[in-house]
Amino acid sequence: METFLLERQDLPAFLNACEAHRRVHIPVEMETHHFIFKPLAEAGAASVALHYLRTALPPKKYFFPPEEVLYRFDAEGYTPQQPDLPPMILFGLHPCDLHGVDVVDHFFARDYPDRTYQNRRSQAWLIGLGCMPDAHCFCQSQGTEHVDGLYDMFLWDLGPRFYVMVRTEAGHDMLHMARALFKPVTDSDRQSYLALLKKRQSAFQLSMPVADLPQVLEVKQDCAVWGEIAQTCFTCGACSMVCPTCTCYDMLDRLELNGECGTRCRTWSSCLFRDFDRGAGDHHFRRDRGDRVKNRYYHKEHGYVNGFGKPSCVGCGRCITSCPAGIDVVSVFTKVRRACGHGGEETRS
């Protein structure tokens, strides 16, 4: 890894230089506290929202879109459809979202590679951006507040300049798109970077103990708390739609009006939906709402940990801010702990 400095005033010039080679997407503020990733060509480099904390939809939307056509079919059979997406650069991914992309990569691109996901993901270069947490961030508890990899280039905001880390060949390619803008790092800059990391570590207001959480959940699968939470939860799936690691989807066929051809589509879904697990004969594996609620939380902090050694929740706080019922994931696990007398309270400062 190499480090450089980029003056804050030179960031738009760098992004525009990247846009000359690849389609750049940046975080922008559409209205107060509402952020989305948007093409630089539409928003302009001056619109980049360096102060944002979480976008409405996570960056997985670029690789695993809310809806996509996988095949076209007619009487002769199926024809695979290829994603029509030019090579891109995603700028401004926070550490939690980079970890989120890594989880989705594991699902779609490693053990059983997904064709359309891989086609999109392989063409994307990622530029990370440091952030300061708010009252809904608990990535520190999940171990996702920092990244040692998962990015091609990463920027830490030192105020008048950015401390830039370049890790991959793609990162060096982006560096050389505007090489004259990047300066050597001094000892003073390194000290400022370390001071920023220390300040950031102490800025987290929300935390929850997770070291023994899989074991607690293992012995409390029949906890009455899940039924209580189900009384509040609408099972609307909002938390799943904004989650950077949820990968549930549904498949549906759409026929053209002539009835001779159609498309097979993949759309985002949620394990909270009543018909998500519907089988033949109208059989449901989780007909009870409490079972569906429990299943989602267990997948995040129990099932994924047992399978892959880490939670699939990255602590971004999107589900907290998006839930119309006001359900807080941290409070959910706190209630489960209390129910089994295991302690380990959440902390809010």
Write the layout of secondary structure elements.
Layout (H helix, E strand, L loop, with lengths): L1 E6 L3 H9 L3 E9 L2 E6 H4 L23 E8 L2 E4 L7 E6 L1 H16 L4 H7 L2 E6 L9 H4 L10 E5 L3 E6 L2 H7 L6 E2 L3 H15 L4 E2 L5 H7 L5 H8 L5 H5 L6 E7 L5 E8 L9 E2 L3 E2 L4 H20 L9 H5 L6 H11 L7 E2 L1
Parallel strand pairs: 2-6, 6-7, 7-8
Antiparallel strand pairs: 1-9, 1-10, 2-3, 4-5, 4-13, 8-9, 11-16, 12-13, 14-15
Features of the shown structure:
iron-sulfur cluster binding; four-stranded antiparallel beta sheet; 16 strands; metal-binding; metal ion binding; 349 residues; alpha+beta; iron-sulfur; eight-stranded mixed beta sheet; 13 helices; 4Fe4S_Fe-S-bd; single chain
Quick structural overview:
It is built from 13 helices and 16 strands. By secondary structure, the chain is α+β, with helices and mostly antiparallel strands.
